[in-house]
Amino acid sequence: TSPTESPTTSSPTVSPTTSSPTTSPTGAPTTQPTVLTTTSSPTARPTAMPTCDARAIEIVFLVDGSGSVPESGWIASQHFIGNTSMSLTISPVDARIGIVSFADSTAVELQLLFGTSQASVDAAVSAMLQPGGSTATAAGLQAVLDMLTAEARSGVPQVVIVLTDGASNNPVETADTAEALRATGAVVLAVGVGQGINQIELEAIASSAEQIFSATDYADLANAVSAVSASVCDSAAPTSSPTASPTTSSPTSSPSGSPTTSS
Fold this sequence. Notes:
263 residues, alpha/beta, six-stranded mixed β-sheet, 27% helix, disordered C terminus
């Protein structure tokens, strides 16, 4: 007999392989970083501004609409009002906004009584028409004084923001009216735009040197929003002093209830 032959396989089973690895794994990162989409020009509203805590304050914008202000400058002034007001909590019990424009004469664009929401401010700003003419700053200041006298809440801080691009047609009357306005307790901020501003007159209008702001032109006015907003917030800050803890005029000689010894 012949021995039983052991079974043999012709060749070992070969594990399947791919002919060549893929050139790049699925989902591999790209070599170039993702480029963020940017706009070619800045947005009209600044991206960061100080925000006042909710508090009662009366704010009136006095805006130069004289003939020396270009159309683009008038639009920039409108943006300035809207952007600055956005830093406030506007409501019937918090910040209220008034707007007065001036040139040869004055126009009340928004009364304090009705400037009680951001929507009302935006609507009034959109409806503003540039009057044109000379720069009767004194008449504008008087209109603001009349508004505050008639409409401001008693005991509430008042801030006036004067925006102008040139010297007034009556500097003496402007200085006198500004002084009368400040005498009521109102804080007056002066914002000068362009090369035609009169620095001495801005100093006569503003409450202090720290409350004078400038922009090289109307295109630069948006850059003043944050600083002006911060000054408005500071002006509205409560001035009450913290409550003092009760103290005795002199320390007691021995603490109450201390043990005594007897001999």
